[in-house]
Here is the input.
Amino acid sequence: MECNDKHQFEKSPAGNLDYQFDWSDWLGSDKIHAVTFNVADGLDVGSQSWTDTAVTIWLGGGQLLKSYQVRCTVHTEGNRQDRRTALLTIRNLSAESSSRVYHVPADPDRVDLSPAGPHYG
Here is the structure.
């Protein structure tokens, strides 16, 4: 089953899974140089890694039926910086029921830049 909104993730309370922010459409020929994550209290943050175009973070824990913001900021080799926020909701799920890839919109005009919530394209 796919998530209805590509900017939202889901996981079970016991899950410890990798979640990916795919920046390839936004980057063009630029490459990711450095990454910063801000994760809401209540989640267990594991390892973080990135390639030229995508960023991965491992997350565990969380309280059932609670939602958490996961904010990813990238710095590129071309001296650009951008930030996207996704929402991680804790639900009772089967292993194959959640999407763990967040495709960052290429068109920043489609993104809600309000600081209060997730960015929806």
Notes: The CA atoms of residues 73 and 83 lie 4 Å apart. Strands lie at 8-11, 16-22, 32-39, 43-50, 54-61, 67-76, 81-90, 101-103. Helices lie at 24-27. The chain is about 5% helix and 50% strand.
